[in-house]
Design goal:
It is built from 23 helices and 3 strands. By secondary structure, it is an all-alpha fold. α1 links the parallel β1 and β2. α18 runs antiparallel to α19. The radius of gyration is 32 Å and the shape is elongated. The relative contact order is 0.09.
């Protein structure tokens, strides 16, 4: 090529074949480069390949498509028995069929219509192992390839981690019971599954940088919301505590004067009695001027709206339809308009000003980003260093399995990559259901405790009145008012109603997902319904919790331009630096992409 002669392209050897049949190691290239590879497990009584069990388990961990031929000996028969037992959770009346495989503690708790995930978590590995031995036994199976109880535990962990992926990528083919027409749909779904799961993973650097900018905005809004909520709670508690002390001290002085008793430090208490109402008034003025509660509500709703936009953008639904460039323009424009709206409202001007133009990223890597999402959206806190050390000391080294290693060093999910419908169910819907269930239980317990305290306080008022201690009744009533305020601030009744409604919606989505055909679950309409319904439900819960109105939607046309075109474009657009890897010859670590040209490409809508 340097001398100007054309490059010589070697011709393909169409007559090439390996010396041994099915010898994959002898092929001079990776078969995955040509087409997705599907593993077909067929047992043979004459040939037993060493390490077959280890190879199959590794493929199942990686969610590679696999077809197991039933009624063939060795490890294939055992795997077919395991898959047939686990697949009962997706059949009709799953609780009745799976009850004999449930553990004793979980079998009595489940009732009604449990989900597939709940049934999988309640399954007992020993009961499944007993059923596998009953179906196929252990005769004629090599000891190295025979499935043990620890292997069953590992397989159950794999299914619990990604149940829908296991359902779509593993199929048992029974040639003695099934006809070709019955197995064709399932086999075609398995054969094409790897392509469907990996076709959207190769995202551009601009896409990842835009999503990271969105999560950075969410991080700053959440940090501001936590700070404002803390101060709003402190000011409110200070106000009511000051009023309680003022009432208690006043009643004490009145009672002492009525009884004719000498009051110790009477002059000091009189000065304190004079200062407490002034202090309460000052705190109330500060609370009214700084508007901590209102600013927290706006920050919380803004962070929830950012999550709404990010998940719709990753799913490619709602306003984010079309090509990648169009979706990126719309996403960037909507975030910019949201920041502009928050800045002009003067409530969060200092918190959000310049946040999209900040070059400093709060997330060092994908693990940090995933931990932030798990903590802020689902309440999952990473284990502390002391807890990890205690677990490592209490657990013997011989008991380390695949599931234990996964918990110690989890493979964090890329929160910037596009998602399919199945990945959205695993990443978003299932954690959100668990988070809402735990949240509503804790709110109900706390609300019951506060209501009991209010009842005790009112009962104390009745007893004080009956006993003739009339000067103590205002103190008890002030305490009752304080408990009522805490109850309305910490456990507002509309939040419990909103969370229960959200759980009903998410449960119906899960039931519809589990009961639908695999091809129907892969449709774009199914994904759009799933993502939009879930995000609107989460947004409704956030509005009920913050007791704030929704931020106004940014109306978009097909090209992503908003209707607010009254101002000049140059006055309201600033360059946004997007971090992306440079070219091999570029010595700089980052290449700054000016988004001004991107935003200028929007169509200007004329306002008539």
């Amino acid at each position: 090529e340097e001398s100007g002669s054309p490059a010589i392209v070697p011709e393909a050897d169409w007559q090439f074949s390996t010396r041994d049949r099915h010898d994959r190691d002898a092929v001079p290239f990776e078969p995955e480069t040509l087409a997705p590879v599907v593993n077909v497990v067929v047992g043979s009584p004459q040939v037993q390949r060493p390490g077959m069990k280890k190879l199959i388990l590794s493929q199942m961990r990686a969610a590679k498509p696999m077809v197991i031929l039933d009624n063939t000996p060795n490890v294939a028969k055992q795997l077919a028995a395991f898959v047939s037992v686990v697949s009962m959770v997706w059949e009709r009346a799953p609780l009745t069929k799976c009850r004999r495989f449930l553990s004793e503690s979980e079998g009595t708790v489940l009732s009604g219509h449990p989900t597939a995930s709940e049934l999988l978590q309640a399954m007992s590995p020993s009961e499944i192992m007993r059923e596998m031995e009953k179906r196929c036994g252990g005769q004629g199976i090599d000891g190295e390839d025979k499935l043990t109880l620890s292997d069953v535990v590992e397989l159950l962990d794999v299914v619990n981690q990604r149940p829908q992926a296991f359902r779509e990528t593993v199929h048992v083919l029974d040639p003695l019971q099934e006809t070709p027409d019955q197995s064709m749909n399932q086999l075609m779904s398995v054969f094409t599954n790897n392509h469907k799961r990996t076709r959207g993973t190769n995202t551009s650097s601009i896409h990842r940088s835009l999503v990271t900018k969105g999560w950075s905005l969410h991080y700053k809004l959440e940090r501001s919301a936590d700070h404002l909520h803390r101060w709003a709670s402190i000011l409110m508690m200070t106000t009511f505590t000051t009023m309680f002390l003022c009432t208690a001290l006043a009643m004490f002085l009145v009672h002492s004067q009525l009884e004719g008793q000498a009051v110790p430090y009477e002059d000091l208490l009189n000065y304190v009695m004079l200062l407490l109402p002034i202090a309460a008034g000052i705190v109330m003025v500060i609370q009214s001027n700084f508007q901590m509660g209102l600013r927290w509500a706006v920050a919380h709703m803004a962070s929830s709206r950012v999550v709404f936009e990010i998940h719709q953008f990753l799913g490619g639904v709602g306003p984010y339809v079309g090509g990648p460039t169009v979706r990126q323009r719309i996403f960037l424009r909507r975030l910019s308009d949201m920041v502009k709206h928050l800045s002009t409202s003067s409530l969060l001007k200092d918190e959000v000003e310049g946040c999209l133009h900040d070059l400093e990223e709060p997330f060092a890597d994908l693990n940090t980003l995933a931990q932030h999402v798990q903590r802020t959206l689902y309440g999952i806190q990473p284990p502390c260093w002391l807890w990890k050390q205690m677990r490592s000391c209490m657990r013997p080294s011989a008991s380390f399995g695949w599931a234990e290693l996964l918990l110690e060093s989890p493979d964090m999910v890329d929160m910037t990559a596009p998602v399919s419908a199945e990945e959205y169910m695993e990443r978003r819907v299932m954690p959100l259901r668990r988070s809402y269930s735990s949240w509503v239980r804790s709110l109900s317990r706390l609300r019951m405790v506060l209501h009991f305290a209010l009842l005790v306080t009112l009962l104390g008022c009745v007893m004080l009145g009956a006993g003739g201690y009339l000067t103590c009744i205002p103190v008890a009533l002030t305490t009752a008012a304080l408990v009522t305020m805490i109850s309305h601030w910490v456990t507002p009744p509309e939040v419990v109603t909103a969370i229960n409604a959200a759980l009903t919606t998410l449960n119906s989505l899960d039931l519809r997902w589990q009961g639908s055909d695999l091809r129907e679950n892969c449709l774009n309409a199914t994904k759009e319904h799933l993502v939009c319904t879930t995000e609107r439900t989460a947004l409704a819960v956030a509005r009920a919790y913050s007791r704030a109105t929704l931020l106004p939607d940014v109306n978009m046309d097909d090209d992503g331009a908003s209707e607010d075109e009254e101002e000049d474009l140059d006055e309201r657009i600033q360059p946004i630096s997007i971090s992306m890897p440079g070219t091999p010859g570029d010595s700089r670590s980052d290449v700054t992409v000016d988004a001004l040209d991107v935003l200028r490409s929007f169509k200007s809508r004329e306002v008539t």
